[in-house]
């Protein structure tokens, strides 16, 4: 099979790889669509995120949709021709954290496309069936790749206990920030203010539910946010997807007493 391999920062080559062999609990998936995450861009541009360094050729990508072409002998929940998405973080299943049900916090999680683990930018993927989920017929492969970033938004809203009629700020509306808007709407937020440097992202945000958009232009955005926060009596929640130091400073000043800050983005300096 063919695979897109990151050989060095800003250098990707299309290489031949062996087609994977599945185990009794696995499915073989023909990959149809892959989303590009901000982490993929970090590895592509810098070859690292903090202490996670690309030390050998790496297949990137972890937001994946495809079609099952083969199932292991013990797999009962899936069959060939099923359209599926995957959960890219594979926990050990044995540690106290996993047994408690919070397997997303497993110290030994194997996360696809995080060095040294290959990702899904290849023709075929072997994946555990119990971390593979069917796609509804009306959802395209491309839209289905957003299942993983959307889960980030939903989980953040759950952890922040985002309540109906709350006032929310989302700083940075790339794909995760846009998914955060959808999650905030689902949890009943009354106002959803968003900030970004790109006007076209602000327009998309408005189309899917933001109520107040601010383009970042030096101090103008700070003054606008301050004014809006004063009108509301402070925001209930500020969610940062940018990882920028300035965003945390803004978040503290915008919150009402007892408000909450959610941090999702990678710091740019790592």
TrEMBL record:
Its cofactor is Zn(2+). It comes from the Bacteria. Keywords: Metal-binding, Oxidoreductase, Zinc. Signal peptide: none annotated. Residues 175-268 form the Alcohol dehydrogenase-like C-terminal domain. Coiled coil: none annotated. PANTHER family: SORBITOL DEHYDROGENASE (PTHR43161:SF9). This is Alcohol dehydrogenase catalytic domain-containing protein.
